[in-house]
Amino acid sequence: MSEALHVLACDLGTTGVKTCVYAIESSGARLVASASAEYGLRFLPNGGVEQEVEEWWAALGRTTRAALERSGLRASSIRGMAFCCQMQGLILVDAEGLPVRPAMSYMDQRSGEQKRRGIERGLKVAGMDVTRLLPSLLVTGGASASAKDPLWKHHWVRDEEPEAFARARKWLDAKEYLVLRCTGRACMTPDSANATFLYDTRPGHYGWSALLCRLFEVDMGILPEVIGATDLAGPLLPKAAADLGLEPGTPVFGGGGDLSLIALGSGAVGLDRAHVYMGTSGWVAAVTDRRRVDTDAMIASVLGAVEGRYNYMSEQETAGKCLEWVRDHLALDEIGIYLGARTVAEEPERRYESLFDFLSEKMEEVPAGSGGLVFAPWLHGNRSPFEDPCARGVFFNIGLGTGKRAMVRAVVEGVAFHSRWQLDSIRRKVPVAGPLRFVGGGARSPQIARVFADILGEPVETTASPQNAGALGAALLCAAGLGAIGSLAEAGELVPAAAAYEPRAGNREVYERQFEVFKSLYRDNKKSFKALNATS
After folding, report:
1. What are phi and psi of 82, to 5 degrees?
2. In terms of DSSP H, where are the helices of 253-331?
């Protein structure tokens, strides 16, 4: 490549967006500049979790302009753009492309009754109606087994807000809405389509399933066309270009969900390679070349950005969110003193880095195992390896000598214990080959990475900017779409490890003992969680 191609990669997460300018060079993708901004997440008493798409768009405009200004480039220098976005949400839009109601987050769990009616009646296997479970497994490689799945959100709006539902013309996720706003085209990529559990994921059969739409009472007309991750969705419309400070006509590519593009940006794209993600939510995912499913552990294969590959993925509802909870409710005074009043004016990225610096420094003052304290990180329910919206966080084994620093370390260990549980479950189906790539905001901390290596019992590698794995995946996708790299399968060679951590033998015994206790916390408290938190 004679000269660098500059692309824009936008990573829309649960509570904030980061926009990055990358230079695509022969050696890979180099980060030139970035900017981030936050937006709201509204929690409702009935289990609903919603967001306003106009807040997404406004934050996207601010960060795009800021990143471009910091890069020193003209808008005309941007050769393409793509989005990496949160998945499993629901945005229903009308004939004009306007949302008929607020966006329903992946965390929204109010459609429990719709799930019960839809897949929990009749003769059951693994708690699901066999007449609907088996066709779902055959066609999609999984099943809509969680009240948080988009299918049941769709049914909830149909049942509870019929006037809004009557105006709906297309079913979109977060990325799809942004692509529509940019190009005027309502389309989905295969990973988002897969997440509806209405899309046929069998090789040679890709497409919306008329059988499943009939079984689950979904009008196929509401489902958008499906295009590839590296396909051109369209040129950037003049109005969108004006809002974002970009050049009209800039190519907008199909993009991907966070799972697909974080997997790509982690560099763990080879068969049986796995990555661990610690952002607001978390997951463990391994790459396979065929569909796999574990209905007991709530693990399924999702089509990846690399054609013909799947991400066999186990999701954790709250991971880095647990550290935000620590910040807000456990150590706010100390952190406020540590950061100083000047941080009030700083952008979210700087405050987040300072938070991790502080927490990492303080947890190092506590030995492995946190003095016997064990934390369960289910602050908003859980998906895998068990699905239960009623589950909640637990500090277990607090004593008179337990202090804040031990609690901070226990929170990190608890997130890592859950990742270990997920990794063990994945290994029942996939022979995961190490080392593991560790990405997301949590992976910026060497101390947290060491804890993960110890608890996972595997070598862990981090990348140069692990918090940007999703944006890097979107940049690599642009590079493939523009023909600057041969294929997305080359991403592993373009994303080298920046640091490596070996499990420390001296911590193995204490962590193995506490891991067994950790797994028992859900089993021993399941009935109590339901008694306290069930909404019906």
Report:
1. -155, 155
2. 258-266, 320-325
Q: Kindly report the CATH number that applies to the domain delimited by 5-266.
A: 3.30.420.40
449 vs 15: CA distance, rounded Å: 23
Residue among 78, 55, 300 nearest 196 (CA): 300
Residue 106: both structure tokens together = 């992946």
**By the 8 A CB rule, do 314 and 259 touch?**
no
Query: Which residue, among 417, 427, 227, has the nearest Cα to 312 in the 3D structure?
Result: 427
Tens of pLDDT, residues 78-133: 999 999 999 999 999 999 999 999 999 999 999 999 999 998 887 877 778 888 99
Alpha-carbon span 11 to 164, nearest angstrom: 29
Q: How far is CA 396 from the centre of its chain?
A: 28
Q: At what angle do helices 404-426 and 348-363 cross, to 10 degrees?
A: 100
Burial of residue 517 (number of CB atoms within 10 Å: 0-12, 13-18, 19+): middle
Full-model pTM: 0.90
**Of 285, 265, 289, which Cα lies nearest the Cα of 275?**
285
163 membership: H or E segment, kind and range = helix 162-167
Is-same-fold flag (5-266; 318-420+504-533)?
yes
d(CA 174, CA 180): 10
Q: Is the separation of the CB atoms in 76 and 247 below 8 Å? A: yes
433 pLDDT higher than 90? no
* 394-423 mean pLDDT: 95
CB count, 10 Å around CB of 478? 29
Query: What are the boundaries of each domain within the chain?
Result: 5-266, 318-420+504-533
Q: In this predicted model, what pLDDT tens digit does every residue of 26-84 receive, in sequence order?
A: 777 899 999 999 999 999 998 999 999 999 999 999 999 999 999 999 999 999 999 99
Q: Which two tokens stand for residue 211?
A: 């059988």
- Residue 434 is predicted with a pLDDT of 81
State how far the Cα of 343 lies from the Cα of 180, in Å rounded to an integer.
36
- Mean pLDDT to the nearest integer, 247-270: 95
Q: Is the pLDDT of residue 339 over 50?
A: no
Handedness of CA 476, 478, 480, 483 (dihedral sign): negative
Alpha carbon distances (Å) from 383 to 106, 151, 283, 472: 11, 16, 10, 27
Q: Categorize the per-residue pLDDT at 509 as very low, low, confident or very high, splitting at 50, 70 and 90.
A: very high
Token representation of residue 102 = 């607020």
Quick one: fold of 318-420+504-533? Nucleotidyltransferase; domain 5 (3.30.420)
3-state secondary structure of 369: coil
